[in-house]
Write a structure and sequence with these properties.
A hairpin with a 4-residue loop joins strand 2 (6-12) and strand 3 (17-25). The protein is an alpha+beta fold. The chain folds into two domains: 3-80 and 217-246, no CATH class; 107-210, Roll (SH3 type barrels). It has four helices and 13 strands. A five-stranded antiparallel β-sheet has the order 10-9-8-7-11. The protein has a four-stranded mixed β-sheet with strand order 1-4-12-6, with no helix packed on it. A four-stranded antiparallel β-sheet has the order 2-3-13-5.
Length: 256
């Protein structure tokens, strides 16, 4: 968690520039009042993205007790917090398995994109209709191939072409191939752990892309971190941050 730097002084000039000075007290654990977990020596400086280059070029960060300060210029837009921005960048940057899923896609499309993966499929047994209940047959193996076929649309004479209809499973233990009609499948279990993890990432990416984006503020965050103090400085420990930024020129608006 970063504290905001308090603005202490602004010096206005007649060339549409101003000198800004910020300061904050530094936490110290040497007096025994704070533990290393409670101290907070991280600070945030929110600046306009339009003038970030000018601010960075003129930025000065010092601690009066001599401790080192680290500055991170590559922070996020202030419309997003650092954790959200980091999660979004990592999610979009990471490459995931190319599943064929989404709107308008079906079970056959998904299985066809997982050829070579291990699945456990439960299918409805075709009985004589005498026994009550539904009997299921369990088939475990690798997805070998998925077939298309032309089917007649129900209650019409029209034919739908290239409809996923059959999946072939390879039983590696018995070295046999099982043919399964997609319409008979009741339950599908993914046994390949890698495919499970990749599917979760793919769904997370898909959801993230559709979520409303936070409105950009036009400001970016400069993060400043002060190291733990090792000096014997006596007095109020402070971190001082100063820089030049654009501002309206100073004009005298009163009369003597």
């Amino acid at each position: 968690m970063s504290d905001s730097l308090q603005l202490k002084k602004v010096t206005l000039y007649k060339n549409n520039l101003a000198f800004f000075e910020h300061a904050n007290s530094l936490d110290d654990v040497k007096d025994g009042k704070l533990s290393s977990k409670d101290k907070c020596n991280s600070y945030a400086l929110d600046v306009p993205m339009e003038t970030k280059d000018l601010i960075v070029d003129t930025l000065s960060v010092t601690a009066n007790d001599g401790r080192h300060c680290t500055v991170n210029f590559d922070s996020c837009d202030t419309g997003k917090n650092d954790e959200d921005a980091l999660h979004e960048r990592e999610s979009m940057r990471s490459k995931v398995y190319d599943f064929d899923i989404g709107s308008g896609r079906g079970m056959g499309d998904f299985l066809a994109s997982c050829v070579g993966s291990r699945f456990r499929i439960k299918v409805e047994k075709k009985g004589d209709g005498v026994s009550s209940g539904v009997d299921l047959d369990t088939i475990e193996g690798l997805i070998l191939t998925v077939e298309h076929k032309d089917v007649v649309i129900e209650n019409s004479n029209q034919v739908a072409s290239n409809v996923w209809s059959v999946v072939h499973m390879l039983d590696t233990n018995a070295c046999t191939m099982r043919k399964v009609n997609l319409e008979d499948i009741v339950d599908i279990e993914i046994l390949d752990q890698y495919i499970q993890e990749q599917l979760m990432k793919k769904l997370s990416q898909t959801m993230t892309r559709k979520m409303p984006k936070k409105k950009a503020t036009g400001r970016t965050r400069i993060s400043i971190t002060a190291s733990d103090s090792s000096s014997s400085f006596i007095g109020n420990n402070e971190i001082c941050v100063s820089y030049v930024d654009k501002a309206a020129s100073w004009e005298c608006t009163y009369r003597m």
